[in-house]
């Protein structure tokens, strides 16, 4: 009898998880259906930083027969996921919220909002700052006699990797706050490890970006600055255990 009673909450949680996932997928599909008619325009907008730096008389090419159709569709689907991130994060929050204390719910929701905004800031930074510098460097250093004609599919893979790298890198403040809140570390400990973290930021920049010093530096420097922001904000959060004890004492 107890076995049946124990499995009922598990089944309820699984059904709720299924519903949350379906809502997230529906949100992505709704955005995708609204954007798919503008797939070529979206690709043209994303390709603009490279096209502006390419030599006069050159253009991008498609080496695969189906690339002119599938590449813009792929980009639109990824863009739909990016735009639906707030809905996806809300569904995650709504699923875990019932198991949190009241003060934890007040903390998690702002973190979800700020993480979405930081991710978008990272993507925007990559598009408006990094791309013009990187593509200007690449096209200017092409050997004599080599015509720059980038394949549209290869370009998409390249920029998506950079978008993801910068989007994740801009989540540093949120990561630091969560580490301090869970008690994994303290602001004073992170401050003492600052030199190692700066070195680690440049190593991450080297691993996540193309092999050129410009993009590596453009990723590492914001990570270092965001580390300082996260370090400052983390001082306003106490470890979770202390907050839980205070909450239980009040109840």
Explain how this protein is built:
- With 251 residues, the protein is mostly helical.
- The protein has 11 helices and no strands.
- It has helices at 2-35, 39-53, 67-83, 85-96, 102-140, 152-169, 172-181, 187-192, 194-208, 213-234, 240-250.
- The longest helix has 39 residues, at 102-140.
- The two termini are 33 Å apart.
Summarize the structure.
This protein is an all-alpha fold. Helix content is 79%, strand content 0%.
Class of secondary structure makeup: mainly alpha
Question: Which word captures the global form?
Answer: flat
Helix content: over 70%
How many β-strand runs? 0
Strand content: under 5%
Q: Which regions are unreliable across 5 or more consecutive residues at pLDDT < 50?
A: none
Mean pLDDT value? 81
N- to C-terminal distance: 33 Å
């Amino acid at each position: 009898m107890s076995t049946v009673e124990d499995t009922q909450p598990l089944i309820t949680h699984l059904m709720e998880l299924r519903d949350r996932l379906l809502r997230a997928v529906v949100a992505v599909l709704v955005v995708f259906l609204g954007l798919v008619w503008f797939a070529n325009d979206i690709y043209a907008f994303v390709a603009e930083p490279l096209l502006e730096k390419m030599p006069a008389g050159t253009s991008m090419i498609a080496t695969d027969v189906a690339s002119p159709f599938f590449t813009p569709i792929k980009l639109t689907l990824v863009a739909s996921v990016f735009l639906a991130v707030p809905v996806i994060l809300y569904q995650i929050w709504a699923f875990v919220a019932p198991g949190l204390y009241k003060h934890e719910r007040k903390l998690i929701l702002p973190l979800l909002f700020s993480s979405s905004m930081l991710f978008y800031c990272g993507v925007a930074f990559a598009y408006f700052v990094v791309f013009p510098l990187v593509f200007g460097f690449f096209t200017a250093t092409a050997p004599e006699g080599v015509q720059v004609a980038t394949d549209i599919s290869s370009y998409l893979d390249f920029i998506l990797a950079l978008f993801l790298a910068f989007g994740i890198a801009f989540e540093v403040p949120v990561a630091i706050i969560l580490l301090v809140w869970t008690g994994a570390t303290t602001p004073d400990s992170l401050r003492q490890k600052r030199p190692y973290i700066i070195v680690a930021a440049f190593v991450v920049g080297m691993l996540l970006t193309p092999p050129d010093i410009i993009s590596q530096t453009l990723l590492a420097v914001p990570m270092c600055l965001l580390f300082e922001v996260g370090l400052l904000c983390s001082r306003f959060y106490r470890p979770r255990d202390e907050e839980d004890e205070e909450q239980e004492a009040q109840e």
